[in-house]
Amino acid sequence: SFMEIREVLALNLRTYRQAQELSQEELAHRAEIDRTYISALERCVYAASIDVVDRLARVLGIEAADLLRLPGASQDAGAPPPA
Predict the structure, then answer these.
(1) CATH number for 52
(2) CA distance 45 to 39
(3) 1 three-class SS
(4) Residue 77 lies in a domain
């Protein structure tokens, strides 16, 4: 089934944040974003601006694109979708 881009961001943001054992508060502090905004992003309440996505990715040490990539999707854009 198709996932909305903000659902993908919410899932990936939570996954990467928890993998690094960062609280929403700590991530928000490092990215200079309000904690309630991080919470809202993880609950699909808001669509993040591209600048916010970039800032979060930098703090998490990943590419901005990683936050927007469907979980399980190949990094090779030319790869056919799984059957």
Answers:
(1) 1.10.260.40
(2) 9
(3) coil
(4) no
The rounded distance, in Å, linking the Cα atoms of 73 and 53 is 19
How many structural domains compose the chain?
A: 1
CA 48 – CA 67 distance, rounded (Å): 11
Which strand (E) or helix (H) includes residue 12?
A: helix 5-19
Distances (CA, A) of 47 to 21, 40, 42, 44, 65: 24, 9, 10, 7, 15
CB neighbourhood size of 9 (10 A): 23
15-37 residue pLDDT tens: 999 999 999 999 999 999 999 99
Whole-prediction pTM value?
0.82
d(CA 55, CA 63): 10
- DSSP 3-state assignment of 55? helix
Query: Locate tokens 């469907």: which residue?
Result: 70
Q: Residue 6: helix, strand or coil by DSSP?
A: helix
